[in-house]
Hints:
CATH superfamily: Aldolase class I
Bound molecules: 1,3-dihydroxyacetonephosphate
Strand content: 15-25%
Number of helices: 12
Largest sheet: 8 strands, parallel, barrel
Amino acid sequence: MTPSAPAATAREILADGKGILAADESTGTMTKRLEAVGVESTEQTRRRFRELMFRTPDIERWLGGVILYDETIRQSTDDGVAMAEHLARRGIVPGIKVDGGAKPLALAPQEDEKVTEGLDGLRERFAEYRDLGARFAKWRAVIEVGDDIPSTAALEANAHAMARYAALAQEAGLTPIVEPEAIMDGTHSIDRSARVTEDMLRALFVQLAHQRVELEGLLVKTNMVVSGYRGQTQAGPDEVAERTVTVLRRTVPAAVAGVVFLSGGQTDEQATANLDAISRVDELPWTVSFSYARALQGEAMRIWAGKENNVGDAQDAFHRRTRLTAAANRGELAAAPSGS
Ligand code: 13P
């Protein structure tokens, strides 16, 4: 059977152990990241840093896709090539974040709960993004974790919106990434992380089935099951791998094209060590990979710090971290040389 365009693109992105760079921070998030390293956030500084990454040698060996933000997909490189075209020429599939961000969930009993907006006009936006070169898309839902949250209302509202988005993406011929993220920066235990992640993914797949989303043309991006970062005990990579795979096996059908992890505020080292441990688990039913933003970009951005003289060193750092993450994705982190 010939695979659909979304299924073929999903396979192309994850072929040969490759992963995804999430370079799709909204302007607000990118401004926070740039200001943290002393750089004023302007359209030009945001473009400069992203171009630095997209021009780093060798990255096409390890990255099958890059997720862009609306501003970036409309920008060009210094030599006048559209960003999406530049990536495509390197053999990297360009993608686009299409959600409108997580907003407070109306009448939620606890004020932290959120629902992601952005469905209105999405069919027309998909047509435009496809013309701009995007072949896959991303929608993120933010699931806050506490003793009494997430509520069923938050899980179902987010799952429903993600499924509606995924159906529209496939209708347009693009591969949807659905990204439910249980936020891990609380004090909760790994048991609580596992429970919430399982409930969240189960709710999502019910809605995906209702909306007739083709699982072979779908990528699921989610958090690893880790201890809350401010919790008293922190699970190591073997436990994280075991807990994560257990939850995924219970909730993600084998037909799904791939599971890709977000880094979610883990240190670069944790994000690679945990991915390595997950990749070493035998007989996973889906292709597993990474779709990191912070754990690929953080060090490069700190080194660059807005200075042209630092571009080469920043690219070396990005090269090294991407190479190590891809090694972790093959379960070969221990054997990978750590220098650039
Ligand atoms: P992090 O890897 O920094 O968690 O970002 C992934 C992402 O795409 C968030 O939407």
